[in-house]
Design brief:
The protein has 9 helices and 10 strands. By secondary structure, it is α/β, with parallel strands linked by helices. Helix 2 packs parallel to helix 3, helix 2 crosses helix 8 and helix 7 crosses helix 9.
Length: about 325
């Protein structure tokens, strides 16, 4: 992280939230035939994204939630607010801190008649170190399980009869403030060894930086996957993966009582922020592999794209693919 990068990320967020109104998602032909998945769907950005998708006429929404009872309550309210039929929304359970849960969810998704897009909205922000599976929890949820879900569900997305399908992962302007020391590969002056082992060392983990770093890693992996998808010879629909920034919103993301959120007056509503995420599901081929801010493709932090960023991306992507293959042998062959 450079000081200038951090200043840019913070000032851009404040300016966007105070002075920019995002476009309201609009209907387009063929949506009534399409199916979309939204994880983290029972509250906040995910809930508001579901509401927009139902309002513009999407045929079916799968709400991925950790607690079925909360999901069903949210579904009931959504149906009432959008006046849609009960069969337009289903609630499925998924715990993004569990490899087995992600695999079960993806297997269930494979039985859908069609799948046109996934908004992988579920994520966590905490400064407390904890383990989930074999990684620090923020890395498991925001990075490992998110991309495990992508690879598992990729064949179904390629089968979309619409010709183009999307996998959208929310990002954050905080990636501009991320410090990269923890993920520097040896050839760039960092420590040798597997990056996940380093990130999961409680005596060395920089948890104040962890959420920002996770969003930087999401950006780097999104770029790497896009490059691989464009090289792939596998038949089927074009699959676009992108990472839009909803900006800081009044949501339940910050649940740690020891963390003080920014003041509400600079926060977007979750409805406004969700417009950015829904835009990502329809952003077009120019959005492939891109960071999207205020519903426009935007250059990410310079340290994500310079020589050092390229070295981090190559090394981390390699370690991630190795980890994903250790969880589900052969899953990286889906690319």
């Amino acid at each position: 992280m450079s000081t200038l990068s951090a200043i840019h990320g913070i000032t851009s967020t404040v300016f966007s939230n105070l002075f920019i109104t995002l476009p309201i998602p609009q209907s387009e032909p063929g949506l009534s035939e399409k199916t979309y998945i939204v994880t983290g769907a029972n509250q906040g950005l995910g809930y508001e994204a579901c509401k927009h998708l139902l309002r513009i006429g999407v045929g079916k929404i799968i709400m991925g939630v950790r607690t079925i009872e909360k999901g069903e309550a949210a579904r009931k309210t959504l149906l009432e607010e959008t006046n849609r039929s009960p069969d337009s929304v289903q609630v499925w359970d998924i715990d993004m801190a569990s490899y087995a849960s992600v695999q079960a969810f993806a297997q269930r998704a494979s039985t859908l008649t069609r799948l046109d897009g996934v908004l992988a909205n579920a994520g966590i922000l905490t400064a407390k170190f904890a383990m989930a599976e074999d990684n620090e929890a923020v890395i498991t949820v925001n990075v490992v399980c998110t991309f495990l879900l992508f690879l598992l569900i990729l064949p179904k997305l390629r089968a979309s009869p619409g010709g183009t399908a999307y996998f959208v992962i929310p990002n954050s302007g905080l990636h501009y403030t991320a410090t990269i020391k923890e993920v520097l590969p040896a050839k760039a002056g960092g420590k040798a060894g597997n990056v996940f082992e380093r990130l999961s060392n409680p005596s060395e983990a920089n948890m104040a930086n962890r959420y920002s770093l996770s969003k930087l890693l999401v950006l780097l992996v999104t770029r790497a996957l896009d490059a691989r998808l464009k090289q792939s010879k596998k038949p089927g629909a074009t699959v676009i993966i992108n990472t839009p920034n909803p900006s800081y919103c009044k949501s339940s993301l910050i649940r740690d009582p020891d963390q003080t959120p920014p003041p509400d007056f600079i926060a977007r509503s979750t409805e406004m922020g969700s417009r950015a995420l829904v835009h990502g599901l329809f952003a077009g081929k120019q959005s492939a592999g891109q960071y999207i801010n205020n519903c426009h493709v935007q250059a990410p932090a310079s340290f994500a794209t310079n020589k050092t960023g390229a070295q981090i991306q190559e090394a981390f992507f390699s370690d991630l693919l190795q980890k994903l293959d250790s969880i589900v042998p052969g899953v990286t062959q889906n690319i």
